[in-house]
Amino acid sequence: MKTVIQRVKSASVTVDGQLISSIAKGILVFAAVGKDDTLKEAESMAGKVLKLKLWEDDQGGKWKKNVQEINGEVLCVSQFTLLASTKKGNKPDFHKSAPAVKGKELYDHFFARVRSQYREDRVKDGVFQAMMDVELINDGPVTIEIETNPPETKNPTEFTPFDGSLDDSGTFNHSGPLHKTFDMPASLLE
């Protein structure tokens, strides 16, 4: 599951000219469900969203308070396009997104968890699969991305460092490990 969270002064969702939801100070949460996501990811994300520290404390300390601690509001909007890939050209590929039925089930579970872990009257929703007009006034701007399944990092021992040499064409030679010998004066070893 992936979310993009924006700290806002206000936000709203309109569908077909009808206001669906609106909030004052708080967070706007765009949420996407991936094809491999489970209830576990939805529950984990709900907790992360509510615990994310985006506001100052009373002493001016940055990034100290979360939306609950400021009594803010939360507007959740389903947005499968967050999982788009453009690795194979310029047309977005949505193969990482969950099918609509699974996406709705897990998004609804995520939304229900956010409501149950906070206060129902402070958590609002958009309309799943609707063409929504989302308006917001950024507070900052502050925009944070959270993933429950971030991409795995390759083992750093597989990395082949640059050895500093150039081949005949003037191109950097990236093959082979980097070996460097340092000779220290004997006086430093005493």
Model description:
The chain is of the alpha/beta class. It contains three helices and six strands. Helix 1 links the parallel strand 3 (26-32) and strand 4. Helix 1 packs across helix 2 (100-117). The longest helix has 18 residues, at 100-117. The mean pLDDT is 86.
Radius of gyration: 24 Å
Strand content: 25-35%
**Number of distinct helices:** 3
Distance between the termini: 58 Å
Silhouette: globular
Poorly predicted residue ranges: none
The helix/strand order is EEEHEHEEH
Structural class: alpha/beta
Biggest sheet character? 6 strands, mixed
Q: How many β strands by DSSP? A: 6
Task: Give a brief rundown of this model.
The protein is an alpha/beta fold and 190 residues long. It is built from three helices and six strands; from the N terminus they run βββαβαββα.
Topology:
Blueprint: E1 2-15, E2 18-23, E3 26-32, H1 39-51, E4 73-78, H2 100-117, E5 123-125, E6 133-147, H3 186-189
Parallel strand pairs: 3-4, 4-5
Antiparallel strand pairs: 1-2, 1-3, 1-6
Helix pairs in contact: 1-2
What would the keywords be for this entry?
single chain, 190 residues, alpha/beta, six-stranded mixed sheet, globular
